[in-house]
Amino acid sequence: MTNQPQETIDTLLSEERSFAPPAEFQAQANAQSAEIYTQAEQDWQGWWASWAEQLQWDKKWEQVLDWQAPYAKWFVGGKLNASVQCLDRHVQAGLGNRVAFYFEGEPGDQRTLSYAEMLEGVCQVANGLKSLGVGKGDRVTLYMPMVPELAMTVLACARIGAIFSVVFAGFSPTSLKDRIQDQSAKLVVCADGCWRRGKVLDLKSVVQQAVKECTSVEKVLLWSRGQGLRSESAPIPQEVAWEDVVGPQPTTCPPESMDAEDPLFILYTSGTTGKPKGIVHTTGGYLTGALATSKLVFDLKPETDVYWCTADIGWITGHSYIVFGPMANGVSQVMYEGAPNHPAPDRFWQLVETYRVSVFYTAPTAIRAFMKWGDEHPSKHDLSSLRLLGTVGEPINPEAWMWYQKQIGGERCPIVDTWWQTETGGIMITPLPGITATVPGSATTPFPGIETKLLREDGSEVEGAGGGYLVLTRPWPSMLRGIWGDAKRYEETYWSRFPGKYFAGDGAKRDAHGNLWILGRVDDVMNVSGHRLSTMEIESSLVAHPAVAEAAVIGIAHELKGQAPVGFVILRGGYDQTQQLAEELRQFVATEIGGLARPENIIFTPELPKTRSGKIMRRLLRDVAEGKAVGDVTTLADPTVLQGLQKEYEDKEKC
Fold it and tell me: pTM of this prediction?
């Protein structure tokens, strides 16, 4: 079957609800006028250069952009240091006492770190890394939980010019080993353990197993989480203790002056098959994109805002919108180590109330979980400090968007629904909250300076309303510069489908108002009786039913239709898993969309297989539905979820 975005059924994702920016918000917004889009379009290179000028350069660039498709060089000849943008320049401006992080561990331990304290800590770590022989261009792999020391280590690597690569502290030894080996890392920095849902996760043993086959690793720098978590396992042969290496170091360290195009980090995509892709991001362009998007999309007010992005630094969201973007803007942040429902389902809202969070950025999968847990949990807390909400990671169902707006935002907070990828480095499609009328479920329009198009199978452009392949048609500063050690794969993966245009596999639809709707991966599109149907569209319909908290839809082989949709559904509290309800849901979809979209089966399940970043693994659901051997599950947050799903599906098939 040839993958192509659905263009046949134009009535799907029809959404007429629209919310203009509140007048009070708009009056104080960083971006208040749509002229910003015109200015960026008239001179898009100059637009990006105006943001780069807000950074502190050791040497200004000689050329804004050198574009030899598919390779870009931004701010050619310029020199700067990433850690200086996030720390030194704020401290030098007299803002050293401003809070950088309010940290809360899952057990309830708390720390408050100022920008000055973060700078001192980063310098100590940087000096410690240098004492271990790490220098400019060396690769350092980080395997740590969400603690300030992870952010410090990221910035310490940037300070001395080492290329860091954060691996989410939850990946298996094999996944960690593969990433260490691919980048030939000289040093691994890890923690002995961390807290998750009241349990201690032993991280050291994972590293111990991973580095056995990693001949490039000279040392393993081990930070102790404390609270009695020091690992009982035997020492790693290359192990050195954080307190011995970092503790005695001086609190000043001169920053390395880096070329704008020097690599800053490698981040591996959470692919589930084949060799992981090490996405390379550089220094000047990436920082420019992170600075600009953070400032405008989240309307950051560093003097007053408390910002909380609930992602992990192990993902690109944490790189761009915890470390580099917010810190380059000098804003105060909340950092939380643990699970959103421990010790109770209101943990996030308790933190919002405690720290008076004003800007909150989370994933649709989390929002749907909050819906499932019940409205009573956020209603117990004072959320009046919130003024802006955001979503990231996957398309959000309109009804989940509406719940978020009402229950969390009190119907007063604009919602920025953002589309971007590890590869783009920063937000590409989003509302600007002081300008854009938001639409439930739509990421609306491209960020200023970004140009997108929808293309048909033959490469021709879809004008006006309609669906197509989503492409980016000109370079942007935070774009990936390649795949580590594999130029051919970079060219083939992102630039071969439509030469000269960036395409990473997503389909989208433009509605009659010009708003973009991300339909998800084009391989999540079904061909039902010759009609193209997006799984996301049917999922949105299911979630619109009052009984449904979350849904995942896949296409399975069908003798007559070619493919038929099957829905996996998590119910809200108070609803029973009955055949009658399953039939009601099937009919609900048929009524909302059309008979073609009616699911062949509805499978009730308490959980869905998700990656640790919260994305539903539809590939594994297809394996279950088609009776195949289940593929690689190393990226799943909870591999045991599949066992229950397989039983549920087998039982359903017997009925």
Answer: 0.85
